[in-house]
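Researcher: I'm preparing a figure for a lab meeting and need a structural model of a single chain. I don't have an experimental structure, so a prediction will have to do for now. The sequence is pasted below. Please return the structure as tokens so I can convert it later.
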Amino acid sequence: MNILFLGDIVGDSGCSAIKKYLPQIIKSRKINFVVVNGENAAKEGVGITENNVNELLNCGIDVITTGNHVWDQKETYDYIKKQKRLLRPLNLKKDTPGQGFGIFTSIGGFKVGVLNLMGNIFMKKCDDVFQTTKEFIEQNKLKQNYDFLIVDFHGEITSEKMAIGHVFDGYATFVVGTHTHVPTNDGRLLNKGTAYLTDAGMCGDYNSVIGMNSENSIKRFYKEESIKNFPAEGEASLCGAIVEADPKNGLATKITQFITGGQLKKDQ
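Model: Understood. Here is the structure written out token by token.
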């Protein structure tokens, strides 16, 4: 089982790179299941629209996760109620529309659970992510409820992400961080067989400030005359990881960080 996870898609540049590269990546790398974080896929670089979702799913993506920007496009609040392949963090307040977890069918007929969580530190207010995680693990079991489990932890700080990774060790196939848009170089297998990566990076133009126009961003830091942040428009890199997993136990056997295209082209 080969699982591809790609980090936060940013603006038109990120969406264009997905359309350009992803179908061939799926074919050449024999990918069985694809998850991306799409919370910044809209043209403005924040939020995601119905049109974005349809275009991304048509490229071969199986599930789209989100995070703190999930509601930045107002249409998403209603659209997410009917689009089961678009997730929002499970630990948002209880009356929030949409789902934070789903079970989907991969190529080959395996059941793949996808869980979207959001951190509590320096993020928008949401329920305690560690309590939510504890309850989830108590109620859902690898190889009973699903064959594989992918966890997108959308958070700001590395210690919180690492702690969640260890909590899920042995209970999930892959725990991957999103939100910072900068790929970390710590992809590894934890002691009990769960693949872990602190941050997947982004699908966006890295000749930028986390996907946004660098000149305007610098002016904002200097408190000079500027406008609202907007996405950089150069060629995007796709960043994430490929995880190989064992169908017998649902745990990972290998993780390979994946970066291709644009400024960061490494194409492993």
